[in-house]
Amino acid sequence: MEQHVDVQHEEPVPPPAESSEPSSRMTRRQALTLISMASVNFSSMICYSILGPFFPAEALKKGASQTVVGLIFGCYAVCNLIGSLILGRYIVQIGAKFMLVAGLFVSAGCTIMFGLLDRVPSGPAFITLCFIVRSVDAVGFAGAMISSFALTAKIFPDRVATVLGSLEIFTGLGLILGPPVGGWFYQSFGYEVPFMLLGCLLLLMVPFNIYVLPNIEADASKDSFFTLLSHVKVILICYAIFTLSAGLGFLDATFSLFVINKFHLTPGYVGIIMLGLSLPYCLATPLMGYFTDKYPSVRMPFMVVGGLITAIGFWLLGPIPVLNISG
User: Fold this and answer.
1) Tens-place pLDDT, residues 13-40
2) Spatial contact of 58 and 118, defined as CB atoms under 8 Å apart
3) Quick one: which of 135, 245, 280, 283 has the most CB atoms within 10 Å?
4) Gap between the Cα atoms of 185 and 199, Å rounded
5) Helix, strand or coil for residue 122?
6) Domains of the chain
């Protein structure tokens, strides 16, 4: 007699679907990339901000007018813009990692060369070399920062704002340490030492990033920069970045001279006063990045309120005549 045995076949369990929520735990590649990006932000910004407390006064001794000093600071931004457009166009062909490392190397060399400009004769020779070195430095810095943004977007696609906000801590640290460190070293050891130390720091970042940074291919962009400018929101963002950066550049060229002449302070104290700009920036950016990732609807209000607060700060710094505040 045949026995019929019902055999129950277990259906294969499908693999668990990947959650759309970003994992709170970083992979090794993400951690190494974050360390690399942090080192780039910190070292680049400390070298940028070191000039503020003492270079304008030093340039005046070398025969440069205040207008020329402003142009020396301004050429950095112009060349950074042009370099960003060109290097951003060819980042896929060059490679993000190579561009970042090469940018750091160029910035390191330019920082060291800028420290040797006090040996150049006063007048046109000094002014010309200042423009050349700062322009090349700006292109190198542009390459490093473009690669940094590209790698961050590639490795942290689900939390770009949070990661960029966290990285801005190190940008803020560079802005915080640059003025007081530069002012103190200049006051204690002279013009060359601050640039030599920071140039060597940048050189150390080159092999570090070669070892730490993973090899990642950047994705080719489908739209050009000018195509993006056809969008109103992109124009508004560019305008916000432009105005805020112009304010920082304005202070770099004029603030230290004003404080030294009016209050007779040393470059070391001028560097400490400049902490009022960089320290709140360092503390606020990670918080802003977290909120804009968690609540995307607050991004535009944050831009508007931040712009108004910045405008009020400049009105008080002047101060504007309407306030009738006498020094």
Assistant:
1) 444 443 444 455 677 777 777 888 888 8
2) yes
3) 135
4) 14
5) coil
6) 28-316 (1.20.1250.20)
